[in-house]
Amino acid sequence: xxxxLARRIAIVVPTLVFVSMLIFSLQQLLPGDPxxxxxxxxxxxxxxxxxxxxxHLDEPLAVRYALWVKGVLQGDLGESQRMxxxxxxxxxxxxxxxxxxxxxxxxxxxxxxxxxxVLSAVRRGTAWDYAAxxxxxxxxxxxxxxxxxxMILLFSVTLGWLPASGYVSPxxxxxxxxxGWGRPACVVGTAIAAVLMRxxxxxxxxxxxxxYVRTARAKGLAEPRVVLLHALRNALIPIVxxxxxxLGTLLSGAVLTEQVFTIPGFGKLIVDAVFNRDYxxxxxxxxxxxxxxxxxxxxxxxxxxxxxxxxxxx
Amino acid sequence: xxxxxxxxxxxxxxxxxxxxxxxxRRAAAFGLAVVVxxxxxxxxxxxxxxxxxxxxxxxxxxxxxxxxxxxxxDEIGRDVFARVLFGARASLLAGIVSVLISLSIGVxxxxxxxxxxxxxxxxxxxxxxxxxxxxFLILAxxxxxxxxxxxxxxMIAIGISAxxxxxxxxxxxxxxxxxxxxxxAARAVGNPGWRVALRHVLPNxxxxxxxxxxxxxxxxxxxEASLSFLGLGQQPPAPSWGSMLNTxxxxxxxxxxxxxxxxxxxxxxxxxxxxxxxxLRDALDPRRTPGA
Lengths: 314, 292
Prior knowledge:
The complex is a heterodimer.
Chain A: H1 2-26, H2 34-38, H3 45-54, H4 61-73, H5 87-122, H6 127-141, H7 144-158, H8 174-208, H9 211-218, H10 223-235, H11 237-245, H12 247-260, H13 266-275, H14 279-307, H15 309-313
Helix pairs in contact in A: 1-14, 5-6, 5-8, 5-12, 5-14, 6-8, 7-8, 7-12, 8-10, 8-11, 8-12, 9-10, 11-14, 12-13, 13-14
Chain B: H1 12-15, H2 18-23, H3 26-43, H4 45-48, H5 80-116, H6 118-133, H7 136-147, H8 151-177, H9 181-188, H10 193-229, H11 241-248, H12 257-284
Helix pairs in contact in B: 3-5, 3-12, 5-6, 5-8, 5-10, 5-12, 6-8, 7-8, 8-10, 9-10, 10-11, 10-12, 11-12
């Protein structure tokens, strides 16, 4: 286990170095002098000079990168030009809102994707299978911001059941929270449900044709017991990794969904930063997301080894 | 028994042209028909559109669908049908150009990593991991933000963001193909490495790349619509389905048609590319049978 962990960390470290280089180099894409661009429309020479010194723009690129990495390692992701606040503080302030959306979306995706995948595999070639596959294809092909708009049209405009948009704190009564979060979570969750459904179906089909499932059936076990206890338990192992990989889909979905439903989360932070040319925030959000993604993948790999004895033995 | 048994013939399905094999799958045939239809619409938009997509009419603001305006009008009286037709251009262009960018970077780099191996492979693989660690849309938003909002920059941003998938796919294909006997034979007769990679490895990796490209076009169309929805793609007043939806979300209550048609167009086009991609994957895999 320790050898495995050491090997994985040996891969993660250079990946993180490349991520940092990539995100640092984003600033080099700015047309012209970054200090002039960051100074805004006024281009006050004093501000430009201040930014030039602060960003070490007179130093060679390698020195600037080293200084930036040093700051990042000390938790300094820069400062928001617009809000005059540390970027890390802004991210940590908005993150709980998006995490709540992501957790609910993942719960919805698991509740739809896994049963649909199991049903599709068990009833392979039947109308159930085709229906589940069609629903998955629909989930993969529907832009989630459009789905959000359609939900507002149905539940707020046509039926008048729910407010069109707005943020509801998780500390509000459960009904209000559900009313506020139900639609955004469904919007983000359906795309992930489609991916989960496809993977569960494929993993179940593989497991259902394996020897130990045949043995379980030969022993006379009831089919639901074979499917749920013997096949699904093993088919779910790769889903652990998939759950970590879907973080990207969750966050991308959250960016758009938070725009549609006016939710003040992580996604809205990056979009507002883009329009206010608050480049330090954009860089900070991308760096934070990529690091979280790499860390989650490492955790998923470790979990995979812990729950699957075959990998431990090999 | 005289004579030797004839060599086993390749399955009939494997010898059929790819297009015919694709068309035997009903879903894929439907997808291909819709993609072709959208292609024709995009090319012939100036001939098909009943009005100028940019022409405003303050006497026809947010009019419901009618004989004069089949899909209604928007918040400044522009014909939604004309804008949807012209919007197909931006979507298809973004989908195809972005994937061409990804292919033109991803295939040579992936081929180099898979074929050269060693330190080159390690370096390229870590760089690919780094790119894959940044969620596709978030990286595209960041790139579009730093490059500046425009359709061209959105295509570049989407293309770069989708590149690691092609690097990884090509690398994987190259690794498995270079272990084949015919590659050993090609090297044994003295072919230089670059020739073996280009003449023997690349053509055999093509089927997987074709399937991935088709599915990537679908993802790129959604990504372009997403960037335009956020204001980072096609800039107003030029028509784009994503930017039309961005405006439409402010008028859902009194002009829902503004949101329905562009969204439906994105859905149909993306669904069709996904169907074609799935169909191609099945058609190129002899183990799969039609309808399986």
